[in-house]
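#struct-help
A.M.: can someone run this one for me? Single chain, 159 residues.
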Amino acid sequence: MGTYLFKYLALCFVCQRADCSGPVYVPLCVVCLAGLSYNNAMAEQCIFCAIAADEAQADVVYENDETVFFHDIRPKMPVHIVGITRRHISSLATAMLADLPYVGALLAAVPAAAREAGLAAHGFRVVSNAGGHAGQEVPHLHVHVLGGGRLGPMVCREA
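D.P.: on it. Structure tokens below:
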């Protein structure tokens, strides 16, 4: 992503607040910068960030400059891969407009990862959990790519 000079910015690039008080060289307001600082602090302790930086082991299926896809350590289907952004974003629920290129790169890489995992011929499901009630276990934006057999209903019904 390029560097832009927004000395006289009328709206924050991320939250569109008119009272943006971001620094001269960054098109973000203080509210959005606080979120970025939180994400950067989380990255220091994040297992997915360690995988993205080749500091932790993973059975990698596919990777490019922005994403890494690897086999889940607790698969729910015969083929279950996890795709992550190399940039730390806590979840889809906390993603901001400035994160759009990274979220887009993650989704754009799914077909290539699915092909590498042998899922292209019969189909696959892509799931992203955001928050505790959704089942998100690692606070880093990721998608689960599931396949290798018939998938059940989208939502489990409790009796």
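A.M.: thanks! The chain has two domains: 1-44, 47-147.
D.P.: also worth noting: Residues 1-39 have pLDDT under 50 and may be disordered.
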